[in-house]
Specification:
Length: 311
């Protein structure tokens, strides 16, 4: 079934895509690699976009905490991926307590204890209660070997019932506010697969950031027809948007699209960055290349990719 969120159906087209284009004015692009790894941070850069009201200029490709980074017995490989990503200029990392039951955070902690100041660090709590969230945050800080989080997020809010829980009297949101007041977390965020539910979350509370699924095959996405309204609201409220499920756990690639096409599609929406999990080191260099060569897609080009993904 074809995607229904075609921007040409609304007058929001120009303003929404102008927001996306305007967000890509960070660095001028990437230089070809000609220096050893020890000097890469000085010779190579990716385009950046402003992460909403946080003011952080994030590279448009960011490192996700799944794939190799959440697998048991893969510490050496995971640490190598994290260090390599940072050497290539990645300055945003997303993880969660649930990824590998803490393994992802633990692997990241091995690097954070030495390089914490180089990264905007985001993690999540899947517990929607006040007490559970406080416990989760304490455990995450210990595993990540840091005393603060740049962004703490509610994990997988995909229905109204979950929203009701987190904003309730003894819900996770009250824990977020206390942690923020104490300086433990800098910004508060919400994550999910539905623009409709994410918009409802923003209507209930003024979150700083949203992590949401966006890909041309609508894999791990719900209520895609509400995407226009969602992005219109995030632009108006200066909310930082992070994209995930760029290839829908590989399904987008299985349907005939390339990694570059999937990347360009997701980043053509008004969001700051896309988090992507890495299996092997070579994928980092490839994703940095696609970030450096990012092309803003027109509506017609996006629709064409949707046709391929749904054929």
């Amino acid at each position: 079934m074809m995607s229904t969120y075609k921007f040409g159906r609304r007058h929001l087209l120009k303003s929404t895509l102008a927001g996306a284009a305007g967000m890509s004015l960070g660095t001028s692009g990437c230089q070809k690699q000609s220096a050893p790894a020890s000097a890469e941070r000085k010779t190579r850069s990716m385009p950046t976009r402003r992460l909403g009201r946080t003011g952080h200029h994030v590279t448009i490709f960011s490192l996700g905490g799944q794939s190799t980074i959440e697998q048991p017995g893969k510490e050496d490989e995971a640490v190598a991926i994290i260090n390599r990503a940072m050497d290539l200029g990645v300055n945003y990392v997303d993880t969660a307590e649930r990824y590998g039951r803490g393994i992802s955070e633990s692997y990241l902690g091995k690097v954070m204890k030495e390089r914490r100041k180089e990264i905007f660090l985001a993690t999540k709590s899947h517990d929607y209660s006040y007490d559970g969230t406080m416990r989760n945050c304490e455990a995450s800080l210990k595993r990540l070997q840091t005393d603060y989080l740049d962004l703490y997020q509610h994990h997988a809010i995909n229905d109204v019932e979950s929203l009701d829980q987190i904003v309730g009297r003894d819900g996770a949101l009250r824990a977020f506010e206390k942690l923020h007041d104490e300086g433990v977390i800098r910004y508060k965020g919400i994550t999910g697969h539905s623009p409709r539910i994410m918009l409802e979350g923003l209507n209930r509370y003024d979150y700083d950031c949203v992590l949401i699924s966006v890909n041309p095959a609508n894999v791990n996405m719900e209520h895609a027809e509400d995407m226009i309204q969602f992005f219109s609201a995030t632009l108006e409220r200066d909310v930082g948007v992070i994209g995930m499920k760029v290839v829908g756990r590989g399904e987008v690639l299985n349907r005939g699209l390339t990694m570059k096409q999937a990347f360009d599609y997701t980043l053509s929406f008004p969001m700051a960055t896309a988090v992507i999990g890495i299996t092997e080191l070579w994928q980092l260099d490839e994703n940095v290349k696609w970030a450096c060569e990012f092309e803003q897609l027109s509506e017609e080009q996006r629709v064409e990719l949707e046709h391929i993904a749904h054929s």
